[in-house]
Amino acid sequence: MAYKRGSKPYRDHQRQRLMQLGLSDSQVIEQVVTDLMRCGCRPREAWRLAAEFTQEETAIRFNNIKTDPDMHMRGSRICEYEKWPHGGVRPSIRALKILAEIYGTTWVRLLDIEDLEAMPVSDRELFLDAGELRESPFVPVPHGSGIGNPDRKSRGATDQGDVDSRASARTGRGSLGPPVATVLPVQRAIVERSGGGLPSEVTHFTGRNAVMAELRSRIDAAASENLVVGIYAIDGMAGVGKSALARHAAQEFSSQYPDGSIWIDLYGQTPGVQTRDPSSALEQMLIQLGVPPEAIRPDFADRQDQWRQHAQGRRMLLVLDNVASSDQVVPLLPDAPGWLVLITSRRKLTGLTDAHPLSLDVLTFDEAEHLLVKLMGEARCTDRNAVSQIVTACGRLPLALRLIAGRLRHHEGEALLDVGSDLADQTATLDTLAAEHLSIRNAFEWSYRVLTEEQGHIFRLLGWHPGPQVTSLAIAAMANVSFAKARQLSRELSDHNLLEQLPGAEVPGGPRYQMHDLMRLYARELADSAEQTVARSEALERLAESYIKTTDGADRLLRPYVAHDAQVEPPDRPMLGFRDAAEARIWLTVERLNLLECLRPWRRPLQPPNSLLYSLFILRISAFGPMSDQF
Fold this sequence. Notes:
The protein is mainly alpha-helical. Helices cover 48% and strands 6% of the residues.
């Protein structure tokens, strides 16, 4: 049944869902408050509604708590407090502290950015000096406030403001403006495939000269004519090099777009990972443009308008990678001059009527040979007949060629002719793929067959990993090995070109890796056939336990004022520690999709210990979007 967002039935429904997850009363209220603010409520109204008090009931409780006989509260005055600064009456700090006591929170959490912009300087200084501010991710920080500056000292301001003092009404809702300070560290840290700056150039990129020439010609023409937006949809079979071409083109053209670049993976063909919905993608792109998470509108149509408004007046490059369908990508297109949009998909996106299609086939024979020689070195490729046999066996697919070259670099004594014959003899196929993918399967099998038993076991387990990216910590949990061993195995699989290390700024938890979609599917097939049935549940249970303990550690830093559940036992193996709340927040951000995917199998019904992970994480993920957007 659908409920109007923010209504009493909606709140009751959300409350019931949260209670079924085992959240405490205070945790339920906190989540409902966050959800109501996403629905457009100001913080003072949101806390009152979450506590299920009417304005009159709040006034009665206020009068029972106050100590100043001159302060007499009425329900209408509570209403005025909730309206301010858009009309209404400015609440004094004394009044805010009493309201916070009624609602079971702190007074700084009853304010938002618009309050801070309109309040007197003395009140703002008290807010900025509040000890909670530096740790709570829910508290708004005005741009340029100096938060995080260790040299900033308390002004020692006194409690100012009169319950009856009126502020001049402001018109409009205020600018969405610059990002709040608490968002900036996360934005700087996230430079990865799921959303952020451009990934690095593909090593030894080869061929695609005709496609690149067409792109250059069209982009130059669009720039001279100041066209609305240049959209180029790159399609082709798996492993043909769509993302590699997009990375190469983005690196070449990025200098023409001075306002920056956004790369976002829509997980259209990633096995085991839910396709990213347009609303979630819009949220991530708005954050990359500097919009504070709390200012992102919950309604999908409003969010789309917000994205297009912020796109105006900018010259930027946008890459939408791994697209499932035209419907997924249409809401994400900026309706503004000066943008370049590159899209990759395994499907021809015929629904994008304004896009220029660029269909990729396998490399030409000469290009494929040239790529293999560049990857392996001229000295290794003196037997051109053997090189040709390998190229033929790999179907001239860049992915297959890179896999084979990666293995040959580590086995210098292997005769190329033997390798080519060995590949040509492989006839098994991935049942779920069409015949055109035979050569990829051959390359996968050959690369897998030379792994050690331990490496092969880890490779198979990663086929069961529920999220799109992995770290050594996740591998350590799933395989029940030490972190040092997991880090070693991660590097070894990366050396075999079975894992790709993602570029980007250093983030908590160490390097992040991903598998090509088809490689992931192949690993899962191997795991289903070679591993014991109970191994999957045990591996995922250990992974969930690791996430529980790390999420709990992050939560304790981010919400030190909340009593934490004692049932989270000390870890029996090394887990990730955070130096401060900023690191904890970054980790929760980069692990967001992994955590969501880890929760999905137990969503209905939840089974211990995942209900605790669900409870912890749902409180943290609410900082990045409405709960209904995530689940």
